[in-house]
Amino acid sequence: MSDRFCKTPEPPYYAVIFTNLLHQEHPGYEAMGQAMFELALQQPGCFGAQSTRDDTGLGITVSYWRDEDSIAAWKAQAKHLVAQKMGMETWYSHYELRVAKVERAYCGPEGREHP
After folding, report:
1. Of 26, 30, 43, which Cα lies nearest the Cα of 79?
2. What is the pLDDT of residues 59-99, one digit of tens each?
3. pLDDT of 15-32, one tens digit each?
């Protein structure tokens, strides 16, 4: 398996899907984004995250969590609260956040159930 894929446990676990569209000007965003990515990985219950952004500014980050309590603790983390405020006030023209419970996971190319 590639190092670009998060190692997740056997389901069930949770995925937080954060989709956002950056304003054309977004000073400081990359540095804050990298800092938040590294901080999230240090949080209890975080299994990892994957992120991508296209050339129009549309980005999607999916982070994987043990349970809803872990997600709530991350949402309330002090440095993350600062980043959330900056995102809403400065960087994002729109965003959507979804929390999903992962019931099944498959990997491939064979499509076998995730170990």
Report:
1. 43
2. 999 999 999 999 999 999 999 999 999 999 999 999 999 99
3. 999 999 999 888 999 999
Q: Are strands 92-102 and 13-22 parallel, antiparallel or unpaired?
A: antiparallel
d(CA 29, CA 42): 20
Residue 4: per-residue pLDDT: 82
Phi, psi for 66 (deg, rounded to 5): -65, -45
| CATH class as words, domain 13-103 | alpha beta
Measured distance CA(97)–CA(109) in Å, rounded: 29
SS3 assignment, position 101: strand
Can the peptide bond before residue 12 be classed as cis, meaning omega within 30 degrees of 0?
yes
The counts of H helices and E strands in the chain are 3, 6
Q: Which amino acid is at 57?
A: G
Quick one: CA dihedral 70, 76, 77, 82, positive or negative? Answer: positive
Give the number of other CB atoms < 10 A from CB of residue 21. Answer: 15
Q: Per the structure block, which two tokens stand in for 56?
A: 């129009």
* pLDDT computed for residue 115 by the predictor: 62
